[in-house]
Fold this protein.
Amino acid sequence: MAVRKRCRSSGCKTSPRCEHAWWLDVMHHGKRYRMPVDDFAFPRGATAPITSKQEAEKVWEPKFIAEIASSKDPRKAPQRESTAGKPTTVADLLAMYRQRYVDVERLKSRHTALSQLRILTAELGQLPTAALERPEAIEDFKARCSGRAIATTNRYLARLRHICNWSIGRELLTATPFHRRGLRIVTKNERRRDRRISEAEEQQLLDACKQLNELSRANAKLTWEVVDNIRARARAGVPQRELAVMFNIP
Ligand SMILES: [Zn+2]
């Protein structure tokens, strides 16, 4: 057994259903490697403590074994490439995207974009940037979105897809996982988006309706004769303000 708890020997009565940490414990070529799963997982992109044995076995143990088998020391955090100016983590990349795209392009959806970036940073920020070149991390994120509306999840994915393409264009990433045989955004089960005008817009509409009902406009009997008259004066250089007074236009 390569994922285990060590607390029973120190008297923990409820092990393994306790708060104590899971450990990775692997023999390789006669040598024993062991360490808390969290200590291995955090430098490699985990964003929360690993409390599930299943996750430890399915996600982290294979990586642990792979590192040992390729004669790396799993107790050392993986080296991050620090090429000048290139983001090393997804959080860095998202910050760059915000600075060079969202802040520059005057997006109508700026507010939404920023809130998406906050969520994506919290969910994927600690991963190395290259994690966005493959589907796994994004699929994991998608799975964690199961409580959200499909349409909402799809908008996060669409944002990620744009981030990937934008990054490839700037040589910050070399591949995107969004392609025909990779990640796809399935809109089939999306519920239609509810769109509502903002309160300010609503008030403007109501104000406009009120003006239409005002007597002055209702009584303004514009005939073609009057219109031609106004046009002629306008051509002759009478300022608009004076025309309005002359013809009782509010
Ligand atoms: Zn325990």
